[in-house]
Amino acid sequence: MSLQTFTYTGTFELENGTKLQGLQIGYNTYGTLNANRDNVIWVCHALTANSDVFDWWKGLFGATDHFNPEEHFVICANVLASPYGTLSPLDTNPTTGQPYYLSFPEVTIRDMVKAHQLLADHLKIDQIEMLLGGSLGGQQALEWSIVDPQRIKNLILIATNAKHSPWGIAFNESQRLALAADPTFFSNTPDGGSNGLKAARSIALLSYRTYKTYDITQQEDGNDLTGNFKASSYQNYQGQKLVNRYNAYSYYYLTKAMDSHNVGRGRGSVDKALAQVKARTLVIGIKSDVLFPIEEQQYLFRHIPKAAFAELDSFYGHDGFLIETQDLTNIIKSFFKTDVKGKIIELQKIA
Where does the AB hydrolase-1 domain start and stop, copy by copy (predicted)? Predict the structure, then answer.
């Protein structure tokens, strides 16, 4: 399904008080909304992904996969600041007539969720059968389930947390330092900060994978090399790959948004906020994840009222949620009991 666009013509106020006059939201849908409007699977995407979930989460989403357009109405919306259809730093600032670049307002996870809610209202989706996401996507899904608990019936949180950790913030700040170390980042051009973005992605990759990942996939065949190592080539390749499809300004603002994640802000405490989740919730952690350690998912499991917990064993670390789609499918099937039409009727092993 091609990208669709919803244009909100009202005033959109961000959490920091900044008011945007109108807002464009890009999104993809797959399948057909049934007569009861209760077959909605809503996906919140991660940091540099987009709304085409059938492209980047193949194996879990697809014509013959667990979440398929035959049984479900699948929707994924591009988040604020991301350059794939929703308002971003590369779009034109109506006040100046020039692209925002570094004058783009800082957004939070709550702002992203507020935009999701507008889109859901526009599509007349009053009930979401399943809301899910991993990493930054999981942060959005959790926040939405707290701010709008009656709309979310079932929830899957993968490799995510209740508030972003000092460790995660430090990784993000290191990446932003890399962006700022590239003088072109301040040039306010579409490709500004490209070298910094390449370096930032290389830093990020170390948090997405593990020592074991590199030891298995980037190990040299012999003992004679003194340069041109596989691991070096891999970091350069992955950095350039992101540069070819992304921009430094969106990356800067999205890492800031991730840092803002704290469900306890303005709600008394994190525990009180998590207690507001009404959805039947499956929390999935990855044992080898160094960016979102499994302790963070165990915390969610302990404090969300109707929750179950599962471990995903992957040597890919944090990125395992994007790669181990068959294992994810097996976990989801084993926890959520469905009827003959694929409708979720029960969550197994509720704590």
Answer: 40-322
Domain with CATH 1.10.1740.110 in the chain: 168-258
Residue type, 229: F
CATH 3.40.50.1820 in the chain: give the residue spans.
Answer: 4-164+262-347
Residues 313, 321: Cα–Cα separation, whole Å: 10
Orientation of helix 194-208 relative to helix 166-180, angle to 10°? 160
Q: How many helices (H) and strands (E) does the chain have?
A: 12, 10
Q: What is d(CA 276, CA 204) in angstroms, rounded to the nearest whole number? A: 32
What average pLDDT does the segment 242-269 reach? 98
Pull the structure tokens for residue 278.
């009404």
In contact, 292 and 161? CB cutoff 8 Å? yes
* 0.70 exceeded by pTM: yes
Residue 99 has pLDDT above 80, yes or no: yes
- 209 has binding-site annotation: no
Instruction: Please give the average per-residue pLDDT across 222-233, as a whole number.
Output: 95
Q: Which residues are catalytic?
A: 135, 289, 318
- Picking from 283, 287, 286, the residue whose alpha carbon sits closest to that of residue 301 is 283
Q: How far apart are CA 132 and CA 138, in angstroms?
A: 7
Q: Does 201 appear as a known binding residue? A: yes
Cross-strand pairs, 35: none
Q: Determine the CATH number of domain 168-258.
A: 1.10.1740.110
Fold of the CATH domain 4-164+262-347: Rossmann fold (3.40.50)
Integer Cα distance of 197 and 203 in angstroms: 10
Contact status, residue 175 vs residue 200, Cβ threshold 8 Å: yes
Residue 201 CA to residue 178 CA, distance in Å, equals: 9
